[in-house]
Amino acid sequence: KEDNNVVVDNVKNHALMPFVQLRNASSPERMFEAYLEANTEYIDWWYKNGDSGKQHYAVSYVD
């Protein structure tokens, strides 16, 4: 439902723009997204799809 989501403007490295977040996203989820955005020198992009669980995140990396 559209009113359950909000566009978050301060997210710049999400793979899909604009970044749309659930209004009732958990604190750990919001904190992790802030962490990803605060580390853009190490993270080119990240992706979140789905409403809960670590299986819905994608972060590309080179080992």
Structural class call reads: alpha+beta
Q: Can you tell me the overall shape?
A: globular
Stretches where pLDDT falls below 50 for ≥5 residues? none
| Count of spatially separate domains | 1
Output the radius of gyration: 12 Å
Main beta sheet strand tally, sense and closure: 2 strands, antiparallel
What is the H/E order? EEHEE
Give me the oligomer status.
Answer: single chain
Share of helical residues:
10-25%
Round the mean pLDDT to the nearest integer and report it. Answer: 80
Amount of beta strand: 15-25%
Number of DSSP strands? 4
Distance between the termini: 39 Å
Number of helices: 1
Strand order of the largest sheet: 1-2
Key features of this structure:
63 residues, alpha+beta, two-stranded antiparallel ribbon, 22% strand
Q: How would you characterize this protein structure?
A:
- This protein has one helix at 27-38; strands at residues 5-8, 19-22, 46-48, 57-59.
- The chain is globular.
- Strands 1-2 form a two-stranded antiparallel sheet. A two-stranded antiparallel sheet has the order 3-4.
- By secondary structure, it is an alpha+beta fold.
- It has one domain (2-59).
- The mean pLDDT is 80.
Topology, pairings included?
Layout: E1 5-8, E2 19-22, H1 27-38, E3 46-48, E4 57-59
Antiparallel strand pairs: 1-2, 3-4
In short:
The protein has 63 residues and is an alpha+beta fold. It has one domain (2-59). The chain is built from one helix and four strands.
